[in-house]
Write a structure and sequence with these properties.
2 domains, alpha+beta, Aminopeptidase, about 35% helix, nine-stranded mixed sheet, hydrolase, five-stranded antiparallel sheet, Allantoate deiminase, Peptidase_M20
């Protein structure tokens, strides 16, 4: 494999990142929730920027924005690259937006340097991925890949009881009869993203080549006991829901450590009732978030933990309700594209490693449908979803040039 020397304009990408960060609700960091005024302004700005760079621009029914350079081989499927433009509340300016700014910059550079591609290339800004305003994630890519059919817009509402449909209408978006935003013309999808973890920084590596996006299981757990007086109830006669929950969570952690990487298991929320210092907790509710890149290992761990929880509850005379609230399957990335990214990294003299993504990304929805790849660059201290989110210009530039090179291979070379 021989790819021409790639020197994509880093300054152009950095300026676009800064300009996108300005579209934010007041407050710390960047807040750009789906279908809000700041979200709409960012999308309008992005469409104008894409058009000024000579791209064919369109916005689909849910608000995904595409900038295209049409290839000479029009019968071939589209090479798609990008990420999501929405943020969490008080997030950073790199998550999602970096992948968009890099995609636009890379395609503009390739068109200016090498002319018309063989295969059509598109930069996409997915309207939503985070689930920060509405209790639904991947609304943008989910409509493109067929995960959603649009009916969810009428039943899903935010904390102010505004439905997705109403919010879309306020942004000038209208659902139409027919297939909607779903696409079947995508030949490959490549996403560039900050790692949102500490692995690359700790390893002093420039590039992470994602081998799989972890599958995820979430549970809501309710442990029932007997609320009673803290001073008059002997220890041997208690049915303490909190003590039982604590034993369960310790067992969960120990089992996760024993299973080893890349499995992770987290309790992110715990509430004890009645929550009074001198009353034994009669009920505890907590959440579980469990992730692994291999479906069999993920299922085995979850089944084992549930059985362990039941044994603990029985031994303490407690009741147990465990309800599944989310189940996503692991998404392996394309082997051929992973090898290509390794070759590009070696050719550019960049240090790299393959790795599992514990966080979810739009790429996981494309993986079952077309060859899909993800590229990571380091995140300072692993911080993300925060105003303190940061990757250096040099780190961002490395990712941009690797992305540009793989897009050249996919769009400009005969297959």
């Amino acid at each position: 494999m021989t790819t021409p020397t790639i020197k994509a304009p880093v300054l152009e990408m950095m300026e676009l990142l800064e300009e996108l960060a300005a579209f934010s609700a007041p407050g710390a960091g960047v807040s750009r929730l789906l279908y809000t005024p700041e979200w709409l302004r960012a999308h309008q700005f992005l469409q104008e920027r894409m058009a000024a760079l000579g791209m064919e621009v369109r916005r689909d029914e849910v608000g995904n924005v595409y900038g295209r350079f049409t290839g000479s081989q029009t019968a071939d499927k589209v090479i798609l690259t990008g990420s999501h433009i929405d943020t969490v509340l008080n997030g950073g300016k790199y998550d999602g937006a970096y992948g968009i700014a890099a995609a636009v910059t890379a395609l503009h550079y390739l068109q200016q340097t090498f002319g018309q591609p063989l295969r059509t290339v598109e930069a996409v800004a997915f309207c939503e991925e985070e689930g920060s305003r509405f209790p639904i994630t991947f609304w943008g890519s989910g409509n493109v890949t067929g995960m959603y059919n649009g009916s969810e817009a009428d039943s899903c509402s935010d904390s102010r009881r505004v439905t997705i449909s109403s919010a879309m209408e306020a942004c000038g978006l209208e659902r139409k009869p027919g297939k909607g935003p779903r696409r079947e013309d995508i030949g490959a999808y490549v996403e560039l993203h900050i790692e949102q973890g500490i692995v690359l920084e700790q390893s002093a590596l420039e590039i992470g080549i994602v081998e799989a996006i972890a599958g995820q299981r979430r549970f809501h757990v309710k442990v029932g006991g007997t609320a009673n007086h803290a001073g008059t109830t002997p220890m041997g006669l208690r049915r303490d829901a909190l003590a039982g929950a604590a034993e369960m969570l310790l067992a969960m952690e120990q089992a996760a450590v024993q299973t080893g990487d890349p499995l992770v298991a987290t309790c992110g929320k715990l509430e004890a009732s009645p929550g009074t210092p001198n009353v034994i907790p009669g009920e505890v509710q907590f959440t579980l978030d469990i992730r692994h890149s291999e479906a069999e290992q993920l299922e085995r761990y979850c089944s084992g933990i549930q059985a362990h929880f039941e044994r603990i509850a029985d031994s303490r005379g407690l009741t147990l309700e465990l309800t599944a609230t989310l189940a996503t399957t692991p998404a392996p990335m394309d082997e051929g594209l992973k090898r290509l990214l390794e070759q590009i990294s070696q050719q550019q003299g960049r240090s790299f490693r393959t790795m599992v993504s514990g966080a979810g990304h739009d790429a996981q929805l494309f993986a079952p449908l077309c060859p899909t790849a993800m590229i990571f660059v380091p995140s300072r201290a692993g911080i993300s979803h925060s105003p303190d989110e940061y990757s250096s210009p040099e780190e961002l530039a490395a990712g941009l040039n690797v992305l540009t090179a793989i897009l050249y291979e996919l769009a400009y070379k005969e297959s």
